[in-house]
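Intended use. Records like the one below are meant for learning the mapping from a protein sequence to its folded structure. Do not use them to infer anything beyond what is encoded.
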Amino acid sequence: MKKGVIFSFLFLLMSFLLFASVENSTCLDCHADKESAVKELDNGKTISVYVNPEVFKHSVHGDLSCTDCHTDLENLTEDDFPHEENLKKVDCGNCHDDVVSDFKHSAHFKAFEKGNKFAPTCVSCHGKHDILPSDDKKSPINKANVVNLCSSCHNGKNLSNVKGLNYPDVLTAYKKSEHYYQITHGNLNAATCVDCHGAHTVMGGENTESKVSKKNVVDTCGTCHQKESEEFKKGIHYKALEAGISVAPTCTDCHNNHEILGKHSKNSVVSSGVVEYLTCMKCHGNQRLGKQFGEEFTSPVTYRSSYHGMSQFNKTDVAARCTDCHNKHDILPMDDPNSSINKKNIVNTCGKCHKGANQTFAMSYTHSTRNYHKNKIAGILKDIYVILIILVIGGMAIHNLIIFFFYLVMKYKKEKEEELIPRFTMQEVIQHVLLAVSFTLLAITGFMLKFSHSFWVQFLVNNLGITESIRATIHRICGATLIIAGIWHIIYLATSKNARKQLKDIIFTFSDITGAIQNVMYHLGLRKEKPLFGKFDYTEKMEYWSLIWGTIVMAVTGLTLWFPVYFSKFMPVWWVRVSEIVHLYEATLATLAILVWHFFFVIFHPEEYPMNFAWLTGRVPAHLAREKYTLWAEEVLEEKKDSQKSEKDEKGEEA
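Structure written out for the chain above:
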């Protein structure tokens, strides 16, 4: 009896296998021929319907009949082949109904229903006749390969402008993460796309059922990071989320979504010296949130001015970070008895670094003690010292200015008694004064915009009433003045014989190079004799031609920024932004050059101190001219001598 049952079972099994083999072979008679297995579409294009028998044989469906999937062919006989061209789409739900049911709730399926050509289906991820199990290293859904599979769409390119959005390049971000590093180094327990987003039930973060929604992401991360997840659920941040406060942070707010780096990575947003400013202060330094949740919410801003905060900003491993005092995940409010900053626990918290700390010490380093509104004594003393600094340093400055102007007047009177040589015409003096005033105001008003948050700008705004509209007006008036001064100078060069002679004197020659080298060697003590210069030495020539170049550059870029709409009509799209950059850095270069180079040679140089008055009088003492501009001074004095001799001879003849 038993033998009969076994024989019957084997007979039926062999008959089934034989039938399947015949049926599949019937299909493969056509579909195994790569050249002929093509189908022409309605639009005239052709697609391949080739099936590789060996590949199909080793797939997860290798023991199935073709008609198990292509069900509209299952009742046909061999005589009915070749079959009709257009078959029904394969329904994977015939076998995988639970998976398909899950997939129909996903964002992918909803996109597919709306006709999104990028929306994936079963075959997009699993393949067709080459489907392999997930534990096969060649399978696209294998843990080691799934990142590349998902990135075939989520790469910042293929999904661009879908729904009018530019989808982020999550692949590049994820490939920088600690998770990807672990995967590529053989740790397949690390998280990939499907671990966080799910395999078939992929939903957007805005969906409350999504694994990566604001509230659920804690449990998603907790599948691997269980300890951290449990700690976080005890903290104030998770309680705020449960209370419906959507701005409260969860795992991805502090660690990022895809570019999750190890805490020891210098680029991690939770690394030492960074977590305070890039992570914690992102919320607790936000003025809008401070107004929403009260002053206490933004009190951690005082950390920036504390020793801990300033040291951390300078990259130290010693000073306490936010997480050292408040913990990392189980952050609790001060009134919670389990909080690390509760009065009962704060001494132990401080004692981790400061051995022997007591209650007074611990309470001396809170955010409240650094708040001048709450710590009235500290606030009053700060105000007293600010006033004291202004009075003392201001008084010192006035005292020293009195002395400076005394020596300035003394030098001016002394020079009036000396023999003076004309160096500049009065027209040149006026041009220089106009240039000096306009440039100074341009520098001040320009840097006011660039450094608008700095204390000196806020002082000018709050105490002198120089608002943005006033600043902009002054800047533009001075800019126009600078351009007018430049045009005036060009006309002067073209119409004045003396100016053209000076222009010839200020042109660079090869002797300027040798003169510069010899001058440096002389002041280094490597040369005994000082080099001789004409009316303009190499330092003044450098300044003059730098001024010409700088004025042209600042005028062109300044006019572009003044009238961007006009210039954008005929200039390329990058012109305005490039003008901003050039205008800023050319102004910085020019200002520093004036302070470091020009002021040294006309004020702080030992031969000139406390000032060279030529910029006001147009004259220089003869002894200084002989010392500094020897060749020119000798020429001028010789001409003067000849002129005086000629006048004397003329008077003698008349007599």
